[in-house]
Amino acid sequence: MSSPRFERVKRSNPRIAELLDQLGMYIQNQIQSGQTFVLPKLAGAALRLNDGEAFVLLEILATGGLLRRIYNLYCRKTGVLLATVDDPRQLDEIPHCDYCDEDHQLQDLKVELAFAPNDALFTKAA
């Protein structure tokens, strides 16, 4: 598993290159199994890291152009994903909830930080 971007990120971070390889394989497996985004909490559990460590590794890949940070908006009442946005300023544009048939206020929502692939490394077939 390799791409020029991924190799550049690993060269820039030689002390954690092995962890980045493990994370890259995890992300690739998640995407190939139908997931559209990666959660720091689940990536951390898979790699036996805490959430913060996983977030930092994912952020390093995002800085390198391999991933992009996204925000998932969920209805707190039903747990249904209402929207995914790339820019935190878009969080103010709360969509109508068809499941509750109402316009929620921000406190009625759960916001989840995730990362989505931004590179063919994670989206090509195995």
Work out the count of structural domains. 2
Q: N- to C-terminal separation?
A: 9 Å
Unreliable stretches covering 5 or more consecutive residues: none
DSSP helical segment count: 5
User: What is Rg?
Assistant: 16 Å
Summed over residues and divided by their number, the pLDDT gives a mean of: 89
Helix-strand topology string: HHHHEEEEEH
Sheet of most strands: 3 strands, antiparallel
| Beta strands, count | 5
Strand order of the largest sheet: 2-1-5
Strand residue percentage? 15-25%
Structural class by sheet pairing and helices? alpha+beta
- Rough outline: elongated
State the helicity in percent bands.
25-40%
Record keyword descriptors for this entry:
single chain, 126 residues, alpha+beta, 3-stranded antiparallel beta sheet, two-stranded antiparallel ribbon
Could you walk me through the main structural features you see in this protein, from its secondary elements to its overall organization?
By secondary structure, the protein is of the alpha+beta class. It folds into 2 domains: 63 residues, no CATH class; 44 residues, no CATH class. The protein is built from 5 helices and 5 strands. A 3-stranded antiparallel β-sheet has the order 2-1-5. β3 and β4 form a beta hairpin. The longest helix is centred in the N-terminal third of the chain and has 16 residues. The protein starts with a helix and ends with a helix.
In short:
This protein has 126 residues and is α+β, with helices and mostly antiparallel strands. The protein has helices at residues 4-12, 17-32, 40-47, 51-63, 120-123; strands at 67-75, 81-85, 96-97, 102-103, 109-117.
